[in-house]
């Protein structure tokens, strides 16, 4: 599988985090972030060969793992979220997408700022009526089926659609941990309450102090989708 060429990049967060850096240091910082995205955790040798000398202030934005390799914690999180997002798109494709709404003419114009490959895939789905009038990054059915407490579906779906793409990704990322912690459905919050309170932001506190270990692993998420939807990767 080819290396994922993209990751979410929050410009405001980057600018805020760089207020203490010179323009040269900002160039070093973003280069290291790109290297981490493409190569994973970075050795001192890789950093030196790529940039030569790197300022102490730039390196302070990176942590060391147990093997002595450097990584930026925020970039690590975004890479993981992106991977789970692509998993959900994969399973959506396996299920044939969401049904088209009746009496609506599809818009065949490619979305701007997508790669040629993304446009081709998008057009193919639209022309086949796979996504309907409005596409969101993670279909509500994935949340509804995985949460498995069937109360007030219509209200929950509206709440789901009002979430941002990032919130939906975070919800699905942490949801398996919450499900494992509440195997008896009657003790699980009503799904509308879970969405209203954005409870996934609190599950790390309630079900584990280590944020890295509180979300779903790739294998866990794939297994859950496979169980619910009867598809295999």
Can you walk me through this structure?
The model is unreliable at 110-133, 204-214 and 229-233 (pLDDT under 50). This protein has three domains: 11-71; 80-97 and 138-229, no CATH class; 99-134, no CATH class. The chain has twelve helices and two strands; from the N terminus they run ααααββαααααααα. It has helices at residues 11-17, 23-39, 44-51, 56-59, 73-94, 116-127, 140-147, 153-162, 165-181, 191-196, 200-207, 218-229; strands at residues 63-64, 70-71. The chain has a two-stranded antiparallel sheet with strand order 1-2. α9 (165-181) packs parallel to α11 (200-207). It is mainly alpha-helical. A hairpin with a 5-residue loop joins β1 and β2. 56% of the residues lie in helices and 2% in strands.
**Fraction of residues in β-strands:** under 5%
> On the 0-100 scale, what is the average pLDDT?
75
Shape: elongated
Number-wise, the strands total 2
Distance between the termini: 13 Å
Pick out the low-confidence regions: 110-133, 204-214, 229-233
**Largest sheet geometry:** 2 strands, antiparallel
Succession of helices and strands: HHHHEEHHHHHHHH
Number of helical segments?
A: 12
Q: In order across it, which strands form the biggest sheet?
A: 1-2
Keywords, separated by commas or semicolons:
3 domains; two-stranded antiparallel sheet; 12 helices; elongated
How are the SSEs ordered, and which strands pair?
Elements: H1 11-17, H2 23-39, H3 44-51, H4 56-59, E1 63-64, E2 70-71, H5 73-94, H6 116-127, H7 140-147, H8 153-162, H9 165-181, H10 191-196, H11 200-207, H12 218-229
Antiparallel strand pairs: 1-2
Helix pairs in contact: 5-9, 5-12, 9-11
């Amino acid at each position: 599988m080819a290396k994922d060429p993209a990751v979410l990049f929050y410009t405001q967060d980057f600018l805020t985090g760089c207020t203490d850096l010179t323009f040269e240091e900002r160039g070093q910082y973003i280069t290291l972030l790109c290297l981490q995205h493409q190569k994973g955790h970075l050795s001192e040798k890789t950093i030196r060969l790529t940039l030569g000398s790197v300022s102490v202030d730039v390196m302070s934005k990176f942590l060391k793992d147990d093997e002595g390799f450097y990584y930026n914690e925020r970039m690590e999180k975004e890479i993981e979220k992106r991977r789970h997002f692509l998993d959900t798109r994969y399973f959506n494709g396996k299920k044939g997408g969401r049904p088209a709404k009746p009496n609506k003419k599809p818009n065949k114009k490619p979305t701007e700022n997508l790669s040629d490959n993304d446009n081709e895939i998008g057009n193919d789905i639209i022309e086949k009526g796979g996504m309907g009038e409005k596409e969101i990054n993670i279909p509500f059915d994935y949340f509804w089926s995985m949460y498995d407490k069937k109360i007030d579906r219509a209200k929950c779906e509206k709440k789901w659609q009002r979430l941002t793409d990032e919130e939906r990704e975070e919800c699905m990322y942490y949801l398996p941990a919450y499900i494992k912690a509440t195997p008896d459905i009657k003790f699980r919050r009503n799904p509308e309450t879970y969405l209203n309170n954005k409870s996934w932001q609190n599950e790390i506190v309630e079900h584990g102090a280590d944020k890295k270990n509180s979300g779903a692993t790739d294998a866990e998420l794939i297994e859950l989708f496979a169980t619910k939807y009867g598809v295999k990767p």
